[in-house]
Design a protein that fits this description.
CATH class of the largest domain in chain A: Alpha Beta
CATH topology of the largest domain in chain A: Rossmann fold
Shape of chain A: globular
Structural class of chain A: alpha/beta
Largest sheet of chain A: 9 strands, mixed
Number of domains of chain A: 2
Radius of gyration of chain A: 24 Å
Distance between the termini of chain A: 13 Å
Oligomer: homotetramer
Number of strands of chain A: 15
Chain lengths: ~450, ~450, ~450, ~450
């Protein structure tokens, strides 16, 4: 990654002058507890690179550390906040909502907290969705349930109407929890707010079960997703072993990146082939997938294949490109395509095989978070509140080098983190599967 | 059920003359412990019916009780046994295999136990599958894994070749674990054995995740299946609530009967419509499913539908009837059909809906059994061994009125147990869902 | 069991004259759906026993079938009901509460439903606990949580004050969910009601995680308990194998009967010794437990022991007998006693061992029910409502020969179901553990 | 932490001259894939601190990055390796064993791999334990089981005899997986090896379920432990709510640090008091724990307390200090002590309370790792192999700033990572529990 080009400056609405209501026991504690804007986290922690920079007199790129500030921008007693969740479900949404509400209410004393229903639709009067009042009471048990109590929706809404609604309701702090499209919408909302010269802060918490947010090492719900994905692998493995030449085929989430597929295949080492968007592969020909599966069946009588939903999209190149309501490129169904191709291939070879196809997507997305994600979401939500109360805007709360940080939206929007074909994750996958490099699998060229 | 027409006589190869090697502590214990063929379990336990029979001088239908016999037919030191698992995976297969092997080996001292690989294919030389030697050591941990260590396959094989193989290998006791098709095959094998005047016993353990075996109250794996099906319901419910007019649609197992669908909907009471083969329903028109779903959405903004795979097959009547390799009628995919119809219906009404479709079938079938099924399978396997060692044949080990019993294959083969439309199970479903009777839903007429 | 002495007549407050508001579709359905008091379930289903009775002209003992009656006793629009949960926690309490409330409300239209807080304390003004209003809304999600939303308590309360409270509040139908002590209290309350000539119905749902209710084949929460108990066995097994001469010792619930210990040991076959109240055993001497464990360690280097809490109480005979607040005999802690004795024994033999002791009791009791118990509780609750609405009283809702039945309190109170030492459950345990009969283990003599 | 005093130089047996057998596709890939000793990870990533160092001309502390080296020290075809697991069980032990064996065998071609049985006892002839041959076949399924297939033991063994055994068996590479005591033993073994001028490499993988290894951000098994600890909290919460003035008390692991207690209380936010070794507290007096619990009961009628096993040891100061066989200070049982004190306190106040005490320790330690720890262990094991094959010794494989690194044993041995009283973890706990600072709770003074 080219760290030099990253703009790491987080916008702010103005100077923070109000004493934070968060109590610190003593001056000593205070100093340790509160985070200042001068607390910054180095992005590139390779020592050689760093010394190189020092030698060349280059600046050292770093992110602002997340955490509570001693002075805040908004007056808690007057502040009205809103939360919105957008896009597909992801384990942890309710944890984030709960964490934000509890921190606003108990730590800062903000009592006017509104939940927009069904994503950005909630701001558009035409849909007629009422806002929810969010209180500690109303969120106390929501993290036991998957999904989002606010509801969600896909697709863009007129940015002006969203900002109109914020103005009309006098919302001064907006928390947006969503993926790619939501990040784009957040940026546009910030622009519109700036254009209108309003003092409204927008803080994003990036949501993608795929774990592909650029400049964010871990996204919430990912650990939970991997955990359940391993159950699908166990199932596929049992089905594959259960029949002569049995093939278990699992499609996992991963539009642009194969993090779930790769991690699940390491966590449950019963997989023989992992196909991800970052690694091109051929189906046919010597060294292609079908050839490799055939060899595997001859040796071991069964095979398990994991394919990320964004893999192998080149096979659909002739088809018109389409985009869904959120503006994501509409992916062709590589899972069912592979099933069809595998069946046709072995039929043509007069080889009896059984293909069991598993698509656990909705059973993963709708789960409550596991305890690791519970803890992670608790931190994310609180840090989003700290950032917002300090009047910061146009940022997302990220995680880098094991620290929570502020990442300007502009630095992350429109880009994707990907599995590096020469990194330890993928090399660990190659070791765990023994799949080798499939023909035409020139890794590192995926975009 | 017409209990009078049931033939409850279990065939036997001959007189049991050998003392059972199972130790009993004393004569007293002995009397309590061993089961005699005179121990029979009354089938119809309604007192009024019974007294009616007594009045009319009719016989009282009963099943032979399962359990260890004091005298056995086969000499354990010489006996060679085989096990085979056929058809689709079902939680508990490995438990049954393990239980049979341990009981044969430890309780009776039978040490020559062979596992046929990949279902009936294992008996056909052309496939070239070797038999597995089964020992306590080789089966000790298999119940932690789903699937079957023997492998399975669908489809019939030439009965003569199967019996040839039994003769050639000198197998005198065969345990067949499988569903409908396997029961049919078992009967044919018994006939062929009889025709050849051989002394080979065939004992079936009926396997159907659908819980639809005629004259068997509970089939192994069913409790496990319901348990996981509830997770799919939770997922569908979260997805449905997550979007405006969200619809969660789950297809569950159940070719001829809706036991899984009905039980899961009671266990996880988030379902609004349960569609099963036993209850006809219309899609269109006033009171049809689509109309009912629309009303539900208007009232509550989301809906959850569970459909058993065998429901609504009338919608495909024009299509040619096909049968799969096991001879089961090939079912059309009611799940995807409903999804398509629902989407089309609401599109025609200009009503924005989201349909999330979940088919957890393979994630359920391939699981290890839960503890309730572990216990149940442990009993089933032992009782199958007791029956076989006593020289009984042409029977399946069943469960009736909370007792393990011997059911002659002839009494059960080719029939299905179904959800009674006026029984407490379905009425409990109606109460839990509030779905009412859908239009044209004349229950009790399903065959 | 001596079935002849069982009084199976269920008391009733009076004649049921009101048409049930439960809709039946047609006369045909009606006939099938409603249960009449003439529908009775035969208790002893052994055919030989039955024919013997017929020959001798004896009556055939049977229980009244549970289920909805066509005519009911109480007018739903005026009826006030109360629910109370007593004694220790058990998986499924909230399912039962929910099922009763939903059935009362939706099926019968009873809208005045009160929950007594903290067991019988809730009826005693001195404690100052307010009643809870129970509505479909307030119980909708409670089954996701373990424990009881009503709270519970142990110990008797003055019966007169309880009945005073029922009179004062005009409660006419009381559902009592509890164990031994509660059943005793229920009987006394019924007597007091009768003495005062009141028309108040009391319906019990027997709760005992131990599964030892006399004349009830299965009690709710038991399947869940066994399921979690197996996890403790897995843990103990891993700890035992982890160290030289490692011993895993697990204490499981079971005051008077070893059903949980026995079933868990069959479900998770890693146990070498199962100790239950029904089977006497010696610690010391040739063939005693310590001797047997030593032999096991010499052969296999590790051992797993499961002890039911009521086992081995003879070792404490010198100590004064005490009873807890619920009137149960206070059991001495056999788990810690065994740990101490085992350590002392091997120390005296200079044999290094490691003993890991696990007592999972509270982690089991406080769980939500699993799906099998969810379904079971749903039925239990509904059938309790049907019984109560029909004006029946002094009964508990039981399960016998796979049917829900009405058991008069008088027939069950003060007795315990036990594991039969010559029955298939215990014989299956002996096979699964290979433990043999320990010295002085004269089974069948336990009371 | 004083990073300057950390010696970060990793010892090595000699120069690595052998080409690694790990294939790289091309020169390009090669450059990216292999890690050089010049790849170092900065320890302190605070930018201000860093710039301060640069200004002062101080060196920048860093750890050597873990990973495969292009040149290795040992000749795989001749190398004999050994693995040993010591101390208490921890989820992931079998994953680590499996990962090491598979990487040695498949990636490097090392085929002579021996497992020492029962910890360091395995090296001492007097115990008579045979070594296990470890092959890909023998480890293929071990990660499904908790515990360690090698067995373990506590306590020191004569270092000379251990090294004698290594010499005798010609073991040149030893992997030691264990905690505190094992790290001390590792250091002594390295010293003895050096003193004897042997070329034997010792690589440690630090194991502590407590997550308190100095200079290691995350230890394997910790995520799994937190996950199960939350179940104990749910149980305690249900028990507490179930009775008037109910108190749930859970003792969790944590000898010197409260990471599990703190994380579990955040993951499952039903806890009202978290007591950890790092935070002193009084029991009695105004503002003491008992006073605070009483206030909580008065307000909410129930309370949940989590105590780490190392908390409150000051209450036992009079008692002689003892150490266990591994040399750890023997902790007094704070859980049972608190239970006793709480009961006595409320008895003295004539306040009826119920205390339910849960100690889930062995049910946590003996579990298989969850998927997050599966992945983590897979990396740890491989990186240990890479380090060992490169002839590095006297190091442990750690994780810092989200990177796997080599930490010299000397830098970590004898120290403990602790929960910072002013860090975000503890502050998040304070927010989640609302417990405030208990009297005399001067955090940050714990040693």
């Amino acid at each position: 990654m080219d760290f030099d080009s990253i703009d790491t400056t987080v916008p702010a609405l103005g100077k923070s002058k109000i004493q934070s209501p968060i109590r610190a026991d003593s001056e000593d504690t205070r100093r340790l507890f509160f985070v200042s804007d001068q607390d910054r986290v180095i992005i590139d922690i390779n020592q050689a690179n760093l010394e190189d920079r020092i030698r060349r007199g280059q600046k050292i790129p770093s992110f602002e550390a997340a955490g509570p500030r001693a002075k805040i921008y908004f007056d808690p007693s007057k502040l009205r906040c809103a939360l919105v969740t957008c896009g597909g479900l992801c384990p942890g949404l309710n944890d984030i909502i709960r964490s934000i509400v509890l921190e606003l209410y108990h730590a800062y004393g903000v009592h006017q907290i509104y939940g927009a229903r069904y994503g950005l639709q909630g701001f558009i009067p035409a849909y007629g969705h009422d806002f929810m009042n969010l209180t500690p009471q109303s969120v106390t048990d929501i993290h036991y349930m998957g999904g989002t109590v606010l509801g969600s929706s896909r697709g863009p809404q007129p940015i002006e109407e969203v900002v109109d609604c914020l103005e009309r309701m006098n919302i001064r702090l907006l928390f947006m929890i969503g993926g790619d499209g939501t990040l784009r919408a957040s940026s546009l909302i910030v622009n519109e707010i700036t254009a209108r010269n309003l003092k409204i802060s927008v803080v994003s918490i990036p949501k993608t079960i795929d774990n592909d947010i650029y400049l964010v090492a871990r996204s919430f719900g990912f650990e939970t997703a991997v955990s359940v994905a391993t159950q699908a692998i166990v199932a596929a493995h049992n089905e594959a072993k259960g029949y002569p030449n049995g093939i278990g085929l699992i499609k996992l989430m991963g539009r642009y990146s194969g993090f779930i597929a790769a991690s699940a295949a390491i966590a449950q080492q019963d997989v023989n082939f992992v196909l991800i968007p970052e690694a091109d592969f051929d189906l046919h020909g010597n060294g292609g997938l079908l050839d490799a599966v055939e060899k595997r069946l001859q040796e071991r009588k069964h095979a398990v294949i994991v394919v990320a939903e964004g893999a192998g999209q080149k096979f659909f190149k002739d088809k018109a490109e389409a985009r869904d309501e959120s503006g994501n490129m509409r992916l062709m169904d590589i899972g069912r395509y592979l099933k069809k191709e595998i069946l046709a291939y072995f039929k043509s070879k007069n080889m009896d095989t059984t293909v069991k196809y598993i698509d656990p997507s909705y059973m993963i997305r709708s789960l409550p978070a596991n305890s690791s994600d519970n803890v992670y979401c608790s931190f994310l939500g609180r840090d989003a509140v700290h950032a917002g109360m300090a009047g910061k805007t146009g940022l997302l709360v990220g995680h880098w080098n094991n620290q929570f940080v502020h990442v300007p939206m502009s630095a992350s929007v429109g880009k994707h983190k990907q599995v590096s074909p020469d990194g330890t994750l993928w090399l660990n996958v190659l070791a765990a599967t023994g799949q080798g490099r499939l023909k035409n699998c020139v890794m590192g060229l995926a975009s």
